[in-house]
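anyone seen this seq b4? input:
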Amino acid sequence: GIVAALVAQCPKRIQQAVECAVRLHGAAAELFARERDEHTMLATEMLQHLSQAIQTPIERDNFTWLQEGQR
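predicted toks r here
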């Protein structure tokens, strides 16, 4: 869902949108793992930390993704 949403928002920058989505998935999973010391998680459990992951700017190639709210 995150990949599709970001590609839909940035259809001319598909590679960057996919990279951003992968980074968001990973960041949300890391936040979840810090809170709970579990080896497995459900996608729905990871979603609890997605908003926090989105609020963290992603710096790459002099371009910052998803910094809304950081201004």
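Residues 21 and 58 are 11 Å apart (CA to CA). The first strand starts at residue 58 and ends at 60. kinda curious what u guys think
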